[in-house]
TrEMBL record:
GO terms for molecular function: enzyme regulator activity. This is P-II family nitrogen regulator. SUPFAM superfamilies: GlnB-like. InterPro entries: N-reg_PII, N-reg_PII-like_a/b, N-reg_PII/ATP_PRibTrfase_C. It comes from Zemynaea arenosa.
Length: 111
């Protein structure tokens, strides 16, 4: 099992989620249960325009509201899901976000 995490611009997150849910990996018989969580975070991605620029008094710096996506998936689906995020999450900037995967040591249902 893997956890895929990504930081994506706000104007791309809806399309990224739709593309993930429409993927073969999402609907594959061996896909198991996916857990997709999305959070609004303040980060340091380059703003796409002036309206994305915000100054955080708490952090004492300029920030951009971006989305952090967390997704659990089977090992064999990681490359497909990361590819979708990288393709659909593009904004035209050189650095439009980040995506990475980590190994899940123990995954137990709460029952």
């Amino acid at each position: 099992m893997k956890e895929v995490k990504a930081f994506v611009h706000a104007n791309r997150i809806g399309e990224v989620i739709a593309a993930l849910k429409g993927s073969i990996a999402w609907s594959a018989a061996d896909a198991g249960q996916h857990n997709l969580a999305v959070y609004v975070v303040q980060g340091s991605l380059l703003p796409l325009n002036q309206t994305e620029r915000h100054y955080s008094v708490a952090l004492g710096d300029e920030v951009v509201n971006e989305y952090k996506l967390e997704l659990l998936c089977e090992d064999q689906h990681v490359d497909e899901l990361i590819g979708i995020i990288r393709t659909v999450g593009r904004t035209g900037q050189r650095n439009a976000g980040w995506v990475y995967a980590t190994e899940i040591g123990n995954l137990l249902p709460i029952a």
